[in-house]
Design goal:
Blueprint (H helix, E strand, L loop, with lengths): L14 H12 L6 E2 L1 H8 L3 H14 L2 E4 L2 E4 L4 H9 L3 H16 L2 E8 L2 E8 L15 E3 L4 H7 L4 H10 L13 H14 L2 E4 L6 E9 L5 E10 L5 H22 L2
Antiparallel strand pairs: 1-3, 2-3, 4-5, 4-9, 5-6, 7-8, 8-9
Length: 259
C-alpha cells in the first residue's frame, strides 16, 4: 500500500468510520460528559447523525449513557494501549525521562507530530504544575508554540513544511507568541540548523522549554524529547548550558537503545 493520503470523497474513504472517530475525539478534559446536542455542536453534525454514532459506540462499549449525558468508557483505552504496546522502546524512554526529573526536578516528555499538533506519548511529570491544563500522555498542543513541535516541524520534508505553514493558524497565546508565518519559518530553519529548539513563554506565560529530536539507531525519527520549566525559576542560560546537554545525553541513550 502506498503512502498517499485519502481525502473525503475519494472512493476508498470511509466517511462513517471517520465520523465515528470524530465523535470519540469530541470528548476531552474540558468535555468529559456531553448531551447529544453538545456532541452534535462540537462535531458540526446534525443531531440525527450524531445520535446514530453515539448509539453505535454505546452498543460497542466505547460510550456509556447516564440519562441525557454520554461519556467515554475505559474500553477506549484499548485503542491507545495497542499503540503504546507496539512501541516497546517507550518503556525505556520513560525510565530515562524519570531519571531527568529526579536529577533536575523538572518535567520531561517525548512527543510525536500528529497533524498540526504534538501529542505526548511518554511523560515524567515534576511535582510542580507548569500550565493551567494537566499535561499527560495523550495531551495535544499546537506544534508551532512548543519546543518539541518546532523540532519535529524541522524534520519535515520541504513540501510538507510548506503545506503546514500555508494552512496553520497562528494565535497570540501570549505577548511573546510568533504570529507571522515568515517569522515561524525562520525559527524552524534555525532549529533545523542547530539541532534543538528553545521556546520561551509563547504558549503559556511562565512556561519555557528546550527540545531535541530522538532517533532510533536505524535513523528512524521516534519523536522529540523536551524538558519544560518555569521561567521564574530557571533562566535561559541554565536551560541552554545545563538542561540542553542533559537532554542531548538522553537522546544519545535512546539512539543506542532503540534499534
Amino acid at each position: 500500500m502506498d503512502e498517499q493520503i485519502l481525502k473525503p470523497g475519494d472512493r476508498d474513504y470511509v466517511g462513517a468510520l471517520a465520523s465515528g472517530l470524530e465523535v470519540l475525539q469530541a470528548f476531552d478534559a474540558e468535555h468529559p460528559r456531553m448531551t447529544l446536542s453538545e456532541v452534535a455542536a462540537r462535531t458540526e453534525m446534525d443531531r440525527a447523525k450524531a445520535r446514530r454514532f453515539l448509539l453505535t459506540l454505546h452498543a460497542l462499549g466505547f460510550v456509556k449513557r447516564t440519562g441525557r449525558q454520554f461519556e467515554l468508557t475505559p474500553r477506549v483505552l484499548q485503542l491507545g494501549y495497542a499503540y503504546q504496546a507496539s512501541n516497546q522502546y517507550r518503556a525505556v524512554i520513560q525510565q530515562y525521562l524519570e531519571d531527568v526529573t529526579a536529577e533536575l526536578g523538572e518535567s520531561s516528555s517525548l512527543a510525536v507530530l500528529d497533524g498540526d499538533d504534538v501529542v505526548y506519548v511518554v511523560r515524567s511529570a515534576a511535582r510542580h504544575r507548569l500550565m493551567a491544563i494537566t499535561l499527560s500522555v495523550g495531551t495535544r498542543l499546537p506544534a508551532a508554540y512548543t519546543s518539541m513541535g518546532r523540532v519535529l516541524l524541522a524534520q519535515l520534508p520541504e513540501h510538507e513544511l510548506k503545506a503546514y505553514l500555508d494552512r496553520v493558524s497562528l494565535e497570540p497565546y501570549t505577548g511573546l507568541s510568533i504570529t507571522d508565518q515568515q517569522a515561524l519559518r525562520k525559527e524552524i530553519d534555525k532549529v533545523r540548523e542547530q539541532g534543538y529548539a528553545m521556546v520561551d513563554q509563547e504558549l503559556d506565560q511562565g512556561l519555557r522549554s528546550v527540545a531535541v529530536p530522538a532517533f532510533a539507531g536505524s535513523g528512524e525519527l521516534l519523536g522529540a524529547l523536551n524538558i519544560s520549566t518555569n521561567a521564574a525559576r530557571v533562566d535561559m542560560d541554565t536551560l541552554m548550558n545545563t538542561y540542553l546537554p542533559r537532554l542531548q545525553a538522553v537522546a544519545e541513550k535512546v539512539r543506542q537503545t532503540a534499534r
